[in-house]
Amino acid sequence: MSFQRDFHYRMPMRVGGQRPGAHRSSTTGSGQEFIAHQTLFDRPDPRRLDLRASIRDPEGRWLVRVNRQRAGIPVYLLADVSASMAFGSAASKIQRMSEFALSLGDSVFRTGDALGMLAYDASERTDLMLAPMHSRGAGVMMAESLARARADQPSTAGIFQACSRIAGKQALVFLASDFHAPLEQTSAALDLLSHAYVVPMVIWDEVEPKAPEGEGLLALRDIESGRRRGLWLRPQIRRRWEDAFAERRDALEKLFSSRGVRPFYMTGRFDADALSRYFFETV
């Protein structure tokens, strides 16, 4: 499958920004979406004079058209760079996230929005933070920062510090993680982002959902704690492995559904067409 660089996205609600952009807004201006008529005295803009409506007005008033303009909105990549994101078979999950950042940069620049990045592990990763900017190279900067990022902290507690920077702001937030953290933590983070539209990007490696083939003693190492242990792999363990992953997926679906959002599962390389379909079907 060829790698497509950009995708199409849109907001499900009206945005309140003043900067012209591509999204439906609640701001009046020079757009094409008609709202109502006002008198020329109340809205002295003769460029919007509606002669037909003025002639039909029973009070003989001069009427102008009031339209809504389209507006831009800040877009953020909220990136989990904890130790579990360093795992991967063909490529690590952070590398997959880096691929997505490139596509995100092209897509946001084409749409005319500002793009920024926040990252976290055990604390907020200010070394990876990028303030929202209108730049063709923003995605490249984010991808390069993620490719060089260290991922050795076992905790994701820094998500609260990162979310607090945009709490209460209207934005489009791509929350990229493998979501192996406790669900209570994810739920509390979504509370902080209640004013934003959140797209949970669930990044899993191809080999994660299924237990390894064969039977016998399997040497395992916890990627976050570094502890090693042995596991005797047999059919019963394999079923429990796969059932646990299915239960985790169901739990994530229920959590996100309760917040009115739908997760986007990214297993393997990023598929821009699949994310475009996600927005067309969800929004």
What does this structure look like?
This protein has 283 residues and is of the alpha/beta class. Helices cover 31% and strands 23% of the residues. It contains 7 helices and 12 strands. The longest helix is centred in the last third of the chain and has 24 residues, at 235-258.
Helix-strand category: alpha/beta
Can you count the helices? 7
First-residue to last-residue Cα separation: 26 Å
Mean pLDDT: 91
Secondary structure blueprint with pairings:
Layout lengths: L19 E4 L4 E2 L3 E7 L11 H6 L6 E6 L6 E6 L12 H19 L3 E6 L9 E4 L4 H11 L10 H6 L7 E6 L5 H10 L4 E8 L11 E6 L6 E6 L1 H24 L5 E4 L4 H11 L1
Parallel strand pairs: 5-6, 5-8, 8-9, 9-12
Antiparallel strand pairs: 2-4, 3-4, 6-7, 10-11
In short:
With 283 residues, this protein is α/β, with parallel strands linked by helices. It is 31% helix and 23% strand.
Q: Which structural traits does this protein have?
A:
283 residues; alpha/beta; 6-stranded mixed β-sheet; 3-stranded antiparallel β-sheet; elongated
